[in-house]
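Input sequence (524 aa), recorded before submission:
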Amino acid sequence: MNLDKISIDIRPRNSWRAFDLGCVMAMKWWKPLMGFWLIATAPLFLLACFISPEFGPLLIWLCKPLFERGLLYIYSRRVFGEEVSAKQALINWPKQLKKMWFSSITWRRLSPSRGFDLAVVQLEGLTGEARSKRLTVLHKTTDDNSGWWLFICLHWEVFFLIGLLTTINLIIPQGIDINVMTVFRQPEPWMLWLYNACLFTVWLIVAPIFIGGSFASYLNRRIILEGWDIELNFKKIIIPKSGNEERSNKASVLSLSVIFISILLLNAPSNSAYANETQLVPEVNQSEIVADAKLEIETESEQPEFESKKRIRDILDVPPFNENQTVKKYRWKGWNWEAETSEEQSTIPEWVEVLVRFIATFGEILLWLVFAAILFLLVYLTKDHILYFLRSASEKVDNPTIDLPSFSKVYEEEGLPSDLGAEVEQLLASESYRKLLSLLLVTSLIEISKEQRLPLTNSMTEQECLRVIKASIVDHRKEFMQTLIDTWIKLAWAHIWPSNSKMKLLSEEWKDLFELHLSETGEA
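Predicted structure, C-alpha cell format:
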C-alpha cells in the first residue's frame, strides 16, 4: 500500500462525508464497476429466473455479498492508482471468495455493517478473533453510521424499483387493460420477468454506490486511526516536491428527483381505471329519452288514469331505467372501542383471557419504558450541545474569549509578557527560536481573531488553522502567517532549525504588522 499513489484527498472526514466520497468514486469508476456486475451476475440471474421466476431473485439476493467482493476489489485497486478493468476484476474474483464466503451469505448476511466489515476480511485478511478485535477498534467511535448507510441504500432500491414499475405502467398505451402494479397481487409469468428485470437494474445501480460508501467509510477510519494525512505531510516537508498538486472533490448528490418523480407518478391514476369506468356506464341519448317521454304523456292524457300508470311502469321496467348500480364509498366512522356483543358464548377459557390481558399490559409498559430510555439517551448524547447553547446565550458578545490551538500554547501558564518588543529581541538574541515562534504565533492569532473573529478551536492542527486564516484575511498578513506557520511546522515536527536571518526577518515583519496594535490594546 503506497500512500504516495493514492488518488483521493487524504484528510479526516465525518462518516456522511465519507459516504459522499464513496458516491463520487462510484460515479467516476462506473464503467468497470457496472461492467463487472453485469458479467458476473447477469448469467446467474437469468438461470435462476428460468428455474423459478418467483424465487430465483431471492437466491441471487442471498449471494449478493459474494458479488460485492469483486466491486471492493476494483475500489481497493483504483484508490491506490492501479487501473483495474472489469475483465481483470472478473479473473481475480474467485481469489477474493476464499475467506468466510459461507458466513457472508448465511448468519452474517443481515449484518447492518457488512459493507464496512467486508474490507477487514478481504483486504486485511483477518478471520476469527483477530477480525473481531480489529472490528472493535474500527467501530469504536461515536460517528459509526455504517448501519444507517445500509438502511439508506435499501430505501433507494425500493424507491427506484417502484419508480421503474410506475413509469412502465404509465407508458402503456390507452385501451390496453394491463397494470404492471398487479405483479404483487396476481402475478403472471411475463409480469414476473418484467419485475425481475427492474429489480436487476436497481441492483446494478445501487450495489456500486453501497460498496463505494462503505469502503470510503473504512478508509476514513484508518486515516483517523493511523494518521495517513500526517505521514503524507511529513513526507512533503522532508522531501519537497516540485509544484503543488491540488485535488478538488466534486460535491456529489444522487439524483433525488428520480425519487420524487416516482412518488408523484405512483399517485397518478392509471389509464386502465378510466377504461373500466367508461365500460360500466352505457351511452344514453338524452334527447331521445325526453322526446319519448313527452310522446307518452300526450297519448296517455286521453286514457284513464290506471292505464297511464301502467304505461309508466312499463317504461321504467325497460333499459336504461331498470338498471341498478351499486356504489361503495368508504368513510371514517371513528374507533369502535366497544366490543361487539354476540349471542354465542365464548369458548375461550378465562385463564387464557387473563393471560392475554397481562401480556398486553406488560407489553404496553415495556414500550413506554423503551420510549423513555430512548428519550433519555438522546438527551444524554446531546447534553454537550444543549449546554453549549445555554452557555452561549448567557455569555457577553462584547468580550468574546479566544480559543487558541493547542500547538501555540507555550505561554499558557506563564502568560504573555508586558513588553512584547523587548521579549522578542531577547529571545532572538538568545536563539530561543521555538519559544520565539510560539510568541509570534500567539500574538498574531490573538490580533487576527479580534479583527476577523476566526473560528479557532483547541483541537485544530497547524494546517487547519492556516486554512481558516487564508479564508478570512486577504491582505499581506496572509503571506506572513503562511511563512510563520511553515517555519513552526519544520521546527516542531521535522526538527529543521531556521536560520538567524530568517528569524530576524519574521520578527521585523511581525513588528510592522502587529506590535503597534497589540501595544494599543494593552494600554487600553
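Checked by second reader. The chain has a mean pLDDT of 75.
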